[in-house]
Input
Amino acid sequence: MNIAIIGGNGFIGRSIFNFFVKKKIKIAKILRNSKFKDFINNSDIIIHSANSGSKFEAENNKENDYKNSVQLTKKIFDVFKNKKIILISTISSRMESNIYSRNRYECEKIILQNSSNLVIRLPLMFNPINKRGILYDLVMNKKIYCGKNTNINSVTRSTISYEVYDNIFNNNIIEIGNYNRKNLLFLSNELNSKSTFEGPDKNFIIDNNIVNKKYDINKVIKLLKIYKRLNKV
Output
């Protein structure tokens, strides 16, 4: 089994790539300057993790986000239409209604034109690499633009990598999350965060019908506390 990953240097993609390397499974990175056609004959499965996770960038540059998500995904699907494709997506595609979520949903529809393909929707993630997202802002005492009662089902990057590996031969849609969802106020109290909340309550939670919820959010809380302590926030 030969695998190629698009976006293998990104926040999630790098973790997936390293996980497969440790499993001694052959996996190649398709980089920005790579030609997709060069990987057709040497790849059985394509993991597409190249879509940006930034809602801010999507809202502020709509045309660029469409080009780098929907149009890119269409190109990937057209080139690798005879291969299995796994799209790393987001729970926002189901939960929200904005430029970011609509483009990600369009990407899912493109990939699912082939019934053997798989979409893996991720929950809210702690992203200290790109230094963005609700959980990062919470740790760094920044303003949160949603309500304090917003529920989440976060997991770690290693969890995502394992789920990609474990579901590599499955199809349709899978949502990854944990079994003990918490709201942002709970997390704020756990972290002694000085963040303020502005906006409506939301529910970034997994669909129980299409979910793997074996995981414990306390692992994420531990990770947030370690990062906060190391950075003396």
About this structure: The mean pLDDT is 93. Strands lie at 3-6, 27-30, 45-48, 84-90, 118-122, 151-152, 172-178, 182-183, 203-204, 211-215. DSSP finds nine helices and ten strands in the chain.
